[in-house]
Structures are given as C-alpha cells and as structure tokens.
Amino acid sequence: LNRVPASRAERSLAGLRNRSTLVISENTGSGAIDFVMRDGKVKFTVDSERAAAAGLTIGSVLLDLAVPKEE
Q1: From CA 40, how far away is CA 15, in angstroms rounded?
Q2: Are 23 and 16 in contact (CB under 8 A)?
Q3: Half-sphere exposure (CA, 13 Å, Cβ side) for 37?
Q4: CA–CA separation, 42 vs 21, rounded Å?
Q5: Beta bridge partners of 34
Q6: Are 1 and 12 in contact, with CB atoms under 8 Å apart?
Q7: Taking the model in full, what pTM does it have?
Q8: Which residue in 6, 39, 52, 61 is a FRET match for 32, CA 20 to 30 A apart?
Q9: What are the tens digits of pLDDT across the range 27-46?
C-alpha cells in the first residue's frame, strides 16, 4: 500500500478492520508492523495495540527484535 494514494490505502485498510489480518507498512504508521530506516539499516516497529485490535498477538521474540517508535 506504500505506492498508492493515502485515501486509497485508508479505504483498503478500512476493509480489513475487524479481521485478523497483519498489515505491514513502510513507516506510515498504518500497520501493526512498520519498516523504518535507522542508522542506515532497515528495522521495524510494532504497534501492539493495533495488532490486538486486529485480533493478533505478536510473539515475544518479534517484540524483542523491534525498535522503539520515534515520536
């Protein structure tokens, strides 16, 4: 969804609400997991609340590997 207009991405994501679907994005803040660049490397953040709202549980190993979100 990273190369489509924001309005279209939001419509697509709205269709997934209330379903157990893991959405991964590129630093848009719209996924349960977002890819981000840190120190020249691709890392990822985890939004546990967004995952829980989708009925998903993120495992402790994945959470340990994630980097904190930047405010």
Answers
A1: 34
A2: yes
A3: 1
A4: 23
A5: 25, 45
A6: yes
A7: 0.66
A8: 39
A9: 567 678 888 889 999 999 99
Residue that has been written with the tokens 């207009």 in this structure: 5
> From residue 9, how far is each of 13, 23, 31 by CA, in Å?
6, 11, 11
Region label for 40, one of left (φ > 0), alpha (ψ between -120 and 50) or beta (otherwise): left
With a CB cutoff of 8 Å and minimum separation 6, the contacts of 42 are: 35, 36
Choose among 34, 41, 40, 39: nearest CA to 66. 34
> In 3D, which of 17, 45, 43 has the Cα closest to residue 32?
45
